[in-house]
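Step 1: inspect the first sequence and its tokens.
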Amino acid sequence: MATPTSAPHAEGARPAPAGGTKKDKASGEGGRPRQGRRNLLHRLDLKGAPYSFVAPFFLVFAAFSLYPLLYTFWISLHKVELATLDVMEWKGFGNYTELVQDDQFWNSLANTFTIGVISTVPQLMMALGLAHLLNYKLRGSTFFRVAALAPYATSVGAAALVFTMLFERDFGMINWFLGVFGADGIDWEDSKWPAQFAISTIVIWRWTGYNALLYLAAMQAIPRDRYEAAAIDGASRWQQFRQVTVPGIRSTIVFTIVLSTIGATQIFGEPLIFGQGPNGISGGTDNQYQTLGLLLYEAGWKNYQMGRAATVAWAMFLIVILIFLLQRLLQRLTSPRSS
């Protein structure tokens, strides 16, 4: 009985060892770490690259915004003189306690609020109406848009000087115009409400066109189909404005309200130049139009009390944060809830 025998191997061919060659082992053992490093670098590239792109902004923000903000808070906890900034006397929250008990601070806060309301409400209403007119097809619409932005491009110093001459008591054009109708001239600077009204006109003149262009950009993003549908339903121009335009630019209106509120809280240049000299820093002889910005300037650069000035600055910052939170709460309460 013949026994089976294994077939002879082909010439030149040898059976591979059970454990593989040394070269295969080396490539297998070294390939896994290499592949792991590549995967790690790939993940870092995907997740870390966006942070590296935005890192310059955060570095600049930390250097020029966050650090000054924190350092100002640190100064507000001390008694510091302008001439000796390196000498600090710890007061804790004593500066804040004194500020809350100071009648001048509450007067400045009230003046800031009234000037802000007098300037912001008419400004935004006029801007909304102007944007509605510019939204129509007009001849020379580009010229009118550029003209609307021209006051914003004018420096606050030049605008305040021109309006100061207009509201001048003895030779101002406004009093001359009132005299044409037999009315007596108004002492715009020495009276509280006339002074605040005059300062508000400067703010209105400078910022109405800017807000109008913001509204115009938002209006042009509204689909024309909505206006055509409203016209087919018989809606008038006024009804289209109320039912289509205003709801369509609601987010822009909220944005301008917040922006104007922050600007009104920080108003400084207009009342300073309107006072024409030392009275501008103190906001008039009786502080009748002194704002928080003027109070900060007076405390730091007239009375050399940098600790108090830093306290006023942080009070302004906290007021802006509070206004923002109230605005967000009001927006949530008034916005329609999704079903």
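Step 2: inspect the second sequence and its tokens, then contrast the two.
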Amino acid sequence: MSSPNLHPMLNVAIKAARAAGAIINRAALDIEAVRISQKQVNDFVTEVDHASEHAIIETLLTAYPGHGILAEESGTQHGARDSDYVWIIDPLDGTTNFIHGFPVYCVSIALSVRGKIEQAVVYDPTRNDLFTATKGRGAFMNERRIRVSKRTRLAECLISTGFPFRTGDNFKQYLAIMADLMPRAAGLRRPGAAALDLAYVAAGFSDAFFETGLNIWDVAAGSLLVTEAGGLIGNFTGEPDFLEQRECLAGAPRIYGQIVPLLSQYSKFANVDDKLRASDRIRAVDPSRSHADLYARSTVGLSEEKAEDEAPAAPAEAAPQPRKLTRVRRDAPAAPSEGDAPAR
């Protein structure tokens, strides 16, 4: 349903998102019947992705035939190639969740005008939650104004992220990042749909979000929701020009400011000294070490780390010698001689 108070282009985007959501909801009634293919390892696409993308593009180009299209599945095949107005579409963000029946996925649509995001829709069809934003007019969830969290202490915050899942992703780096963040925050979550993660930051449901390896259609709509809700978004070093840099950090301003120093050393844009520090940290959280050692290193706070550096080294205790188990071979008992007493 369109609203007369919304920007006309946003109304069209809402119509397109709801059309895609209806397709997704129908398919979710019988997941086993959905045809699935694999773009690369752990990166899936379904007939539902294609059908919902087609519905979105048809709705948008019917209203604005001169606009351009950038979609996850079809790229720039549709729409005008040289338009200042480009719709950025992810028809089903969270496909892996969807094909498992895990109800965390969404439709994401954004309008870029001369390179700047000006309209945004993120629609969660499982809950019928509609997140919208127009540049300069605020962000809304189901027509109710939303704002980012008011928390100011990282220790009280819930942070969402996305784990690496592709071949070639830097798993050790992510372990180091989690080792830095988990003991400092109230919780770390991995819902599995970046656009919805950003919408939740905008609504104050979580306090921050970070992830690497994201494409522009994953973050375009969510980025406008966050900024219109009073939050900050950028790359791991805090720079705001992040849309095509494949690393994203978003959060309430005070929390964003506390996370940037932790993540900046892991950014591909970090300086040499920061990259060296990150390499040392990654080696310290080497997954080849024992689980007990990993836990101990991961839960050391900043003050404890400093105290350890300043305190004199205690003499190492001698490690207890492991007990050696020896298997004794038991031979068959010999027959008693005539002079031996019988056993009792």
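Step 3: confirm your contrast with the notes below.
The chain has two domains: 8-145, 154-304. Residues 154-304 form a domain with the D-Maltodextrin-Binding Protein; domain 2 fold (CATH 3.40.190.80).
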